[in-house]
Design brief:
4-stranded antiparallel beta sheet, about 40% strand, disordered N terminus
Length: about 230
């Protein structure tokens, strides 16, 4: 598996990297990841590996410094337990752009995607070879130790789903039914990595994350399939 590493140019002070330095990290990540995805689209998780088709993975998509910056932003958000109708999940979330309301079973507009997420959203779109602005929904999630997410497929309103892992690794598990058995695959999603679920990985396979060993944050970037 080829690796793409973001450069760590640019200074930082106690308040974090400057905007210019931050853009430099992302530009580096964008450039290397774009090359990465172009050169490995067919090789990564191809027939020689048992992974779902449409699953792409870029380790080290952002630098450790950019990771710290993003975690600091997410930690400042008014995170709330994930609401699943009458039930409450253990993970803490904040949605931007749109949010699916399980109580009314509809996609609702939510706060606009904030400025601090725009640069990374552009980099993610670059990775997916999508036009700027394709990412219309962003979900920031915090998983405390022992917290995970159950088996599911993302709502059909969404199309491509990208996930940036921050803070600690997780086992990103996939399963799909094959007759009376489950076909399974686990991606070890390292901190600072980005995954993309498209095609079968998105439509045919379910995914889940078992309880994490250390606190983990993720930022999920989604394009829309249909206007809600
Ligand atoms: O934390 C992640 O990377 C996955 C999040 C996820 O599957 C979801 O919010 O639907």
């Amino acid at each position: 598996m080829r690796r793409a590493r973001a450069s760590q140019k640019g200074g930082s002070d106690r308040s974090g990297p400057t905007e210019a330095a931050w853009r430099a990290y992302i530009k580096a990540a964008f450039t290397t990841s774009r090359r990465f995805v172009l050169s490995t689209q067919l090789a990564l998780f191809d027939d020689t590996e048992a992974g779902p088709s449409g699953l792409h993975y870029a380790p080290d998509f952002i630098s450790p410094e950019a990771e710290r910056e993003l975690i600091a932003h997410v930690a400042e958000l008014p995170l709330k337990p994930f609401q699943f109708g009458a039930f409450e999940g253990h993970r803490q979330v904040k949605s931007f752009g749109f949010r699916y309301d399980y109580a009314v079973q509809r996609m609702l507009e939510s706060e606009p995607i904030p400025d601090w997420l725009q640069t990374i959203a552009r980099a993610v779109e670059g990775f997916g070879q999508l036009p700027d602005g394709s990412v219309r929904q962003v979900l920031c999630t915090e998983y405390d130790v022992g917290v995970g997410i159950g088996w599911h497929r993302d709502k059909p309103h969404f199309d491509k789903v990208f996930g940036l892992s921050l803070g600690s690794p997780c086992k990103f598990r996939f399963r799909r039914r094959m007759g009376d058995k489950w076909e399974r695959f686990t991606l070890q999603a390292e901190p600072r990595s980005l995954y993309l679920m498209d095609g079968e990985a998105r439509q045919a396979w379910e995914h889940s994350i078992p309880g994490v060993d250390q606190r983990r944050w993720s930022i999920t970037f989604r394009t829309m399939r249909q206007r809600p």
